[in-house]
Amino acid sequence: MAKLNGKKIPTLYDLFHKDPLAGKGVSKKDELPRNFKNFFKLSWWHMGKITSVNLIFLVANFPMWFILLAFSGLLNDSISAPASSMYSVLFGTIQNGVDPVNAALYGVHGVQGVMSITTTATLVMYALGGLMIFTFGFANIGTTYILRNLIKGDPVFIRHDFFYAIKRNLRQGFIMGIIDLVIIILLAYDMAFFFFNMGGYTASLMFYASVLLAIIYSIMRFYIYNLIITFDLSLFKVIKNSFIFSALGLKRNLLAFLGIALLLLLDYYLIILITPLGVMLPLIVLYGYCAYIGSYASWPKIKQIMVDPYASKDDEQEEEPVFTDDVQ
Question: Phi first, then psi: what are they for 62, rounded to 5°?
């Protein structure tokens, strides 16, 4: 880290550090308990690496930029169209003569709006965005490994650790990435669909059920990738154990979920009020900090239940333990 007046300043240096064996050893911050009291202090000390994680996630998930470009509408064609369904009726009436009544109505219902038409270029961007199924799991595996090591207090070397984790969990990372992305898309679609159709009792009930499932799955995601990179478990047991952990660590999980929700809400209002700042926040730190919160909540509970009971008291080995599918 760089220094200013004797104080350390977080930088992106570690992202380009080539020596995975360099380092000064264990610092005092690595010995602090991972509880709520120390969260803000530790997260500030780790901010340089958190911003590096944010950057590397955005680069590794490059197909999402095609999706964002398609959603922006910049590649669409624009045409003028009536904003009111009464326009055609009033237009026909006026052709037979103008009077004060239909003229006043035409002034209200004859307003033209702008309609965006999807073009071939937009469809191509959506198709290229589909490549995200190949990158999403790997990006989550690599960044989760880095953040877990930060929480553990292990030395972290951004580029080396990112590719090491992906290489070590290649098959499960790819498959879980597809499953994860499909579930996220389905939950988002369900919530949007039932929200805009909440006139009936069934649709309202399904909306709140979708929201509840989204909350549960969001908490499960704190554990899914952490379990994949730490233990030798089948994906079925990873998902099952993640669901169990979402209940076992309820207090930590809810605090983490609320913290992430508040950050996303803050960014939403910043986009409305101070658009440049709201847009820049996700590019600099938002994903990395949200993922750090999730790992900070999940790793201590995983360690307490699945690591400590099986770790030898005299074992001074620094590498994480590897378990078989018998561990649940």
Answer: -55, -30
Kindly state the DSSP code that residue 114 receives in the 8-state scheme.
E
pLDDT tens per residue across all 328 residues of the chain? 554 555 555 555 444 444 444 445 445 566 788 888 899 999 999 999 999 999 999 999 999 999 989 888 888 887 777 767 677 777 777 777 777 776 777 666 666 767 778 889 999 999 999 999 999 999 999 999 999 999 999 999 999 999 999 999 999 999 999 999 999 999 999 999 999 888 778 888 999 999 999 999 999 999 999 999 999 999 999 999 999 999 999 999 999 999 999 999 999 999 999 988 988 999 999 999 999 999 999 999 999 999 888 765 545 445 555 444 444 4
Task: Specify whether the CB–CB gap between 320 and 230 falls below 8 A.
Answer: yes
Contacts of 7-16 with C-beta under 8 Å, sequence gap 24+, read: 9/48, 10/46, 10/47, 10/48, 10/49, 10/51, 11/48, 12/48, 12/51, 12/52, 12/55, 13/48, 14/48, 14/49, 14/52, 14/156, 14/157, 14/158, 15/52, 15/55, 15/56, 15/158, 15/159, 16/159
Give the integer Cα–Cα distance in Å for 13 and 20: 13
Tell me the sheet residues that pair with 82: 112
CA distance 94 to 294: 62
Amino acid 180 reads: D
How many CA atoms within 13 Å lie on the side-chain side of 259? 21
Length of the chain: 328
